[in-house]
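Supplementary Methods, section 5.1.

A reviewer requested that the exact input to the structure prediction be made available. We therefore reproduce it here, unchanged from the version used in the analyses.
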Amino acid sequence: MPPSPQVEGLGVRSFIIPQMKKLIIFDLDGTLLNTIADLATSTNYALSKCGFPVHETEDYRFFIGNGINSLFQKTLPEGFKTQENILLVRQHFLEYYSVHNAELTEPYAGITELLAELQQAGLQLAVASNKYQQATEKLVKHFFPTIKFVAVFGQRDGIPAKPDATIVNDILAITNIEKHDVLYIGDSGVDMQTAQNAGIEACGVTWGFRPRKEMEQFSPTYFVDEPKEILKIVAI
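The structure derived from this sequence is encoded token-by-token as follows.
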């Protein structure tokens, strides 16, 4: 294979990127967006409203990733992790987060440019998140208004959360793209396991919420330290 063209700006010029992958599926929290501060603030607000102790923002890196109810179950104190308390905290969280979910959140450096490059190159893009559906759609639309995602899926009623492969399979059904033409990108062991369960290649990002060693347990094909490195992967 001839050497890749020189990098210009974020990466290889989009019109000559070889189409080795046709669909790129991104996780949201910790991959496209740094949402940790808004999630921590909103959850702490809800916990406080219910009379429970709050947590440091950094602690939320290990609370997030398995869905909204799991978040509250992890943040509630021992002896109070009941379904009733989870639903009570959820109610206050949703009231607050629906209004304040973009105040401290922002795309990671280079992500907006990466998505634009991939879109211009003709790749199809999708989002697969364990964040609840309404917030997933709202944040994607707010931060990436010019990106035409073929699917934006969060946690939906009646659909199992990641690492179950249903969310990926639903995206594949929409796009009608073969698994060997798909790359899944995420920042956690849940993401790597999701790709593994779906039978598609995975790429772990090291700028997100979870440590690399957590992702290594599921043997992803790639790791990247900066968004622009993803352009090199699709050009392999």
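The CA atoms of residues 93 and 184 lie 29 Å apart. These observations are discussed further in the main text.
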